[in-house]
């Protein structure tokens, strides 16, 4: 008989205690994009290292040029796996849209029999990473050992472009290289159906600042004569898409492949429509490239998105000013073999070509990672598929993901290691938005799923 | 002999005291666009009323729905004039660009023999309005009377679109109607050459907010599928000008007249080039309609300007969000017979036509006033021209102005009263920008100019 059954019982019995631990972690304001919260990031790292030590890991907090990493190791006889998660969270503004304090996590019954965990990071990624930690804790408590040799890497800069990650992986490659990686930062197909992610879009972030006059100007004196940086920036951004929603930057689609017809067909079979995808967020009209299904748009097509813009007077009332500068945060989601640095360079050329001779432009890079495409039929994927199907009572589906998880590309390139992407988030978790939540069922059955996956991996996939 | 000579002597002798009074007024943070400063606006009004009472005016602070007005009257035998100025000032952000505290006014020697008064409102409009008050004070001190019957109206909402002004003028029309108005909110041609303004552009302000999804979205999940309000707004703004710098809103140029060739010629004779106008602010290329002289662009052509834009994440670092909304502050400078409300409606139609079916847009109006065109050869203008020429030792020039002064249109429409626009500001005064200043020579000779103008008006223009 499987040795996982008592572990699952133990996870059921200790759910309340596991929630208390998660709440303690969620209460730490580890916002990585804002330097003001650096001490909170460190606190989250230290909390995690201490928790891992309490269940027998050799765990410590490692310095980087930015926020620290947590590295932990535990001996075991099965294959060597490296589990990855991130303890940093997104900013919480606009704060006034939160129903509850984002850093006072709570359990809420949202409908009879359905509870959710509320708070920033509940789903992305603290709740997810703790599903794995809890699975290890229970296995250890029941059997006094782990079924595999387990290493853990927790990062604190995932939400700010992971600037320290590559140097860290390069420096500690020998220590961190395992047979494969387990990454818990993705989602389920729906509340009942588990999923394994085999495709991930890449990401390039850029901040562009257009400067015109050397000071703010009165629009009465200078309007109609002096260059207006908001007008220049609006022109640049508007020029970036054509009437069919395609990105117009020269070379942007280099390396983009058409998705095979059988894959498109399997996605169509999932039954998503523009209405079912956009309805829950108050929209109905697909805004991307025309003539493509909504799942193809978010899973297998590249995009240019505008994530922020600011210039001139934005306070109460009105100020008839021509501002000295205006800036925008622009990001690109990449697929297949698009090259992040070529895209960055092409974008900068595209912008520079639209700046008047007496104005200037500057750029700040914010991360860059290529897309990832895993094989649909690797043994590792098949093993996890079976374990997930057993736990959830529904066949696990192989999907792609719109968001990037740069670590997966880095594991591949720097450590020669494939990643198994299993997660329990849901599209309505409001990650990166006010009122983030994580289903209690995701947290609980997520723990059980990892226990099953670890056991199955130890058996080499045999039931 | 003229009775103005001893008044001029008195103004010379009391310059230091007049500066102390101006500094006291400049220290009051009367920013009208920000509700947080409402008590400071009231304090400025009360300070002015008290000062006017101290020189024999019947002066009081009058309530409005917004910031209060100051109304004052003084008997006199000559014509009845109504002097207008505004005690409110522009916001001071970005505060870090100020060399000195904007509300700690000071006198600075910027080159040998040239001093300037620094602080927010020094030029726009507290310094200017005090030139008139000081002229009255000196005349009264020397002669025990004023040469004209003088009424005064000081407004506190000029920088926020003057919402209370029209109702106030309508309600107090009988009390405020004079033979003509004197308005001191304009500039000189250059530091040595006085000017009278005979043309003023009008202004329409609009705030437009585009809303897409009902929450901020993760650009990984929804990028390429969900509408992005920054992209929609950028498209709208970019569409508003064609390749020749003309505004593309249908009907925008209705009521715009070509400036007569002899006027254009007189402006050309002033010798301004794109370089001489734009060089001081770090620019060189005219950004408005092609094929027109720079003075025509700012004095006699309408514009669409973008004064502020904000949407999405604008803090430190990066956030891969598709924001729920984005907004812009847009203003139009109007000339000749352009109708502000028709322009506003045409703009809104233009925007609405570019909003996708599942998104929405809302508008907030921020003031609206038509342009003003005075006659080049009215007796009032000729009288002031002679007085200014005498004071400054150079012929006063008749110019137009790019900025709007809505009061002038309101005086014409509501009180049937023409306005004489004389002011002593300079293009490099940095009004509406950090480090605003007013030349000490403007303040001093401005006082003397008003003393001469009042005396000349009392004599019916005879020397």
TrEMBL record, chains A, B:
InterPro entries: Cyt/Met_Dipeptidase (IPR051458), Peptidase_M20 (IPR002933), Peptidase_M20_dimer (IPR011650). The keyword Chloroplast does not apply. It comes from the Bacteria. Pfam families: M20_dimer, Peptidase_M20. Residues 198-357 form the Peptidase M20 dimerisation domain. Keywords: Hydrolase, Metal-binding, Protease. Gene3D superfamilies: 3.30.70.360, Zn peptidases. PANTHER family: BETA-ALA-HIS DIPEPTIDASE, SUCCINYL-DIAMINOPIMELATE DESUCCINYLASE. NCBIfam families: PRK07907.1, PRK09104.1. This is M20/M25/M40 family metallo-hydrolase. It comes from Chelativorans intermedius. The lineage of its organism: Bacteria, Pseudomonadati, Pseudomonadota, Alphaproteobacteria, Hyphomicrobiales.
């Amino acid at each position: 008989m499987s040795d996982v059954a008592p572990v699952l019982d133990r996870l059921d019995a200790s759910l309340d205690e596991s929630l208390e631990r998660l709440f303690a972690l969620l209460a730490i304001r580890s916002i990585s994009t804002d330097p003001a919260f650096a001490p909170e990031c460190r606190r989250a790292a230290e909390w995690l290292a201490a928790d891992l030590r309490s269940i027998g890991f050799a765990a410590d907090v490692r310095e980087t040029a930015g926020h620290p990493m947590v590295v932990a190791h535990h001996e075991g006889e099965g294959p060597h796996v490296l589990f990855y998660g991130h303890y940093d969270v997104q900013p919480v503004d606009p704060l006034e849209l939160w129903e509850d304090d984002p850093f006072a996590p709570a359990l809420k019954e949202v409908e009879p029999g359905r509870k959710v965990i509320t708070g920033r990071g509940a789903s992305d990624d603290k709740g997810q990473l703790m599903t794995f930690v809890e699975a290890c804790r229970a296995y250890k408590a029941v059997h006094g050992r782990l079924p595999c040799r387990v290493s853990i890497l927790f990062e604190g800069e995932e939400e700010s472009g992971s600037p320290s990650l590559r140097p860290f992986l390069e420096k500690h490659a020998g220590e961190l290289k395992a047979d494969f990686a387990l990454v818990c930062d993705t989602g389920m197909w729906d509340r009942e159906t588990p999923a394994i992610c085999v495709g991930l879009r890449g990401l390039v972030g850029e901040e562009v600042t257009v400067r015109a006059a050397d000071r703010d100007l009165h629009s009465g004196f200078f309007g109609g004569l002096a260059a207006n940086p908001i007008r220049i920036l609006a022109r640049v951004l508007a020029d970036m898409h054509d009437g069919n929603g395609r990105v117009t930057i020269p070379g942007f689609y280099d390396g983009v492949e058409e998705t095979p017809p059988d894959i498109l067909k399997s996605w169509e079979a999932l039954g998503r429509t523009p209405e079912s995808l956009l309805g829950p967020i108050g929209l109905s009209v697909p805004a991307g490239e025309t003539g493509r299904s909504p799942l193809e748009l978010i899973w297998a097509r590249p995009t240019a998105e505008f994530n922020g813009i600011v210039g001139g007077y934005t306070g109460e009332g009105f100020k008839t000013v021509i501002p000295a500068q205006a800036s925008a945060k622009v990001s690109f989601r990449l697929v297949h073999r698009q090259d992040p640095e070529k895209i960055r360079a092409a974008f900068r050329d595209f912008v520079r070509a639209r700046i008047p001779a007496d104005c200037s432009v500057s750029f700040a890079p914010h991360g860059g990672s290529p897309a990832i495409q895993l094989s649909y039929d690797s043994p590792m994927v098949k093993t996890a598929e079976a374990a997930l199907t057993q736990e959830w009572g529904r066949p696990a589906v192989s999907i792609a993901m719109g968001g990037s998880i740069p670590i997966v590309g880095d594991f591949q390139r720097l450590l020669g290691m494939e990643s198994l992407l299993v997660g329990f988030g849901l599209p309505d978790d409001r990650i990166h938005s006010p009122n983030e939540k994580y289903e209690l069922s995701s947290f609980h059955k997520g723990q059980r799923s990892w226990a099953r996956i670890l056991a199955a991996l130890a058996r080499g996939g045999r039931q």
